[in-house]
Amino acid sequence: MASALLEVSMTASAAVRANAQVQRLGDLRIGEQIGFRSMQMRGVKLAIPQPLRSTRVNNSVRISAVTAESSSPDSLKRAVAKKAVELVKPGMIVGLGTGSTASMAIEELGKLIAAGKLKDVMGVGTSYQARVLARQFGVKTVDLNDVNVIDIAFDGADEVDGQMNLIKGGGAAHTMEKVVNTMAKKTVILVDQSKVVSELGLTFPVPVEVLPFAISPVLRSLVALGGEPEIRSALRKDGPVITDLGNMVVDVRFPGGIKDPADLERRINMIPGVVENGLFVGIVETVLVATKDAEETVIIDLADYVKNLQQAKNDAAEEKASSS
């Protein structure tokens, strides 16, 4: 009991220090002159400020976000991104997700527009990064408040289970992603096979966006829910990660996994000071999984992928039983 109280006290103390750092930012506007890339650190993807790369084309300066994909392309992510944009039709309003796979989908969408295969397509970005990439690849964007409906939305995920429940927020954009995905008539999640899990939360924490002034009581409430919260720290700047909406992010681990994602999503969002959390339950209609079959890349629906895994498991069990 004493150790638990000490842990909460230490967590609250860290929260107070982080809160003071945020308050000292005052009216400083951030994010308007930086791009973003994702990076893995202690199991958590962090949004890391990166200088924009400037190149001169025809005596004009073109600004482009530096992304990890440009230097180390991932064939599985690229394949599923190409497959997904085939679902876009002329005149559609498209939700543009945030993250490595979603960034590739934005690029592939831009290629179709540039080739004249898609006309009158508009994008709604879920982050500053998504809007920068849309401009770079020639996808016109519109503000979320100026549309009544989104026809289709593309996004990635940090984890997805067999019931299409997700953990998102590695790029700290899950609040805007959830708004856009909820508005969309159809949300398509793009993942490679490494993101499919039997149970959420066993390896990836749940990101929670929190109002800066409420960070300390929110941390205590998350501990009371059985979580192990940690304020997400920024790289290349001192202090915590600040979202596009000006809030902080707390990554919460739940030892033993998440047995009831819907209940946990609701309970976290009921905590005063929480803006939104990274559990997405009952929102997604389609999950496309990119997987390797020998040397061939295969894009398969999540339900079929899970069914194939179960069949392979059953076959292995039968073979083992027959040989014993």
UniProtKB/TrEMBL annotation:
> What highest taxon heads this organism's lineage?
Eukaryota
Q: Which SUPFAM superfamilies does the record cross-reference, listed alphabetically? A: D-ribose-5-phosphate isomerase (RpiA), lid domain (SSF75445), NagB/RpiA/CoA transferase-like (SSF100950)
Q: Which family does it belong to?
A: Belongs to the ribose 5-phosphate isomerase family.
InterPro entries, per the entry: NagB/RpiA_transferase-like, Ribose5P_isomerase_typA_subgr, Ribose5P_isomerase_type_A
Q: What is its EC number?
A: 5.3.1.6
Q: Which UniProt keywords apply?
A: Isomerase
Q: Which GO biological process categories is it annotated with?
A: pentose-phosphate shunt, non-oxidative branch
List the NCBIfam families hit by this protein, alphabetically. PRK00702.1, rpiA
Known pathway:
Carbohydrate degradation; pentose phosphate pathway; D-ribose 5-phosphate from D-ribulose 5-phosphate (non-oxidative stage): step 1/1
Single GO molecular-function term? ribose-5-phosphate isomerase activity
Q: Which reaction does it catalyse?
A: aldehydo-D-ribose 5-phosphate = D-ribulose 5-phosphate
Q: What class of enzyme is it?
A: isomerase
Listed name of the protein: ribose-5-phosphate isomerase
Q: Which PANTHER family would you find in this protein's record?
A: RIBOSE-5-PHOSPHATE ISOMERASE (PTHR11934)
